[in-house]
Amino acid sequence: MSKSRKPAVCQAGSASALPPAGPQTADHTDSPGWVLRLSAWLAVLAVILLFVMIVAAALPAIQISGPGSPLDWVWQPGQGRYGILPMCVGSLALAALALLLGWPLAVGLSCWLLTEENFKFLPLVRFISGLVRFMTTVPTVVYGFAAVFLLTPFARATLGGTGMCLAAAALMLVLLVLPTMTLILMAGLRPRLERLCPWGLALGFSRFDLMRFFVLPRSGRNLASAAVLGFGRAVGDTLIPLMLAGNATQVPGGLSESMRSLTAHMALVTANEVGGAAYNSLFVAGLVLLAVNTAASLALRRLVRREAPAGSSAKQAATA
Question: Domain ABC transmembrane type-1 spans what residues (predicted)?
């Protein structure tokens, strides 16, 4: 009799342990969704308000025509010239040069860290991976302070001048954006490589062959997103251009010439001006920075949408 009662007790216990079905479970799963949707709408509203505020503050300065316009090539506040175009060109040149040097290094470094198969180099791979993650936590002012004493004397001896130039700032920006782009690329390339490794290694491919012939050609979205985020961080950095670029309000004609970025310009003018035409021109500079980052983000989204149909068709063919 006792043996026949045990299954009944187990069934009753298992039935009582089940969670109640019905509206309670639905409410529990829906509540995080409302929080996420509310957070998303608040973020969108904050960005829209930021755009509206900057545009409203920049419009009076944009409407000024003549020598006092911010859309001019001369910055001489003592003579009533408040042009920010040299700083716009300097920021774009600095960010483009840093991206041109840093993006290939990030691609190569991420591929090497993911495909290294020699067990002798595995400790080195782990060390470099940890170093890349550590570099993302180093404050920007530390990079700039170290470069003032280590990089600028080398630039002065090699390129001439004071050493505070476009090349010095670009080289330090490479160190700043390289860890970010490398980690983004590793996060995007690793899942693709791991999915291909079982059959690829069985067919005789090495991890490097899989990365070169199969993963990289189909990872345009990850490559572009790393480039866009690296460009955005290079354009938006303030301290490295402020400490290393020389802060000359001119269009740089070469790597050895001084220049001033928009972010450094905004920091310098804000420290010395409160109100007035020079201060109002900073809203135009902020609008330019916001427009550049927005254009880069929209270009990335368009690229992602173009790749989405190709990816979906490939998945359908694979499942068929």
Answer: 88-300
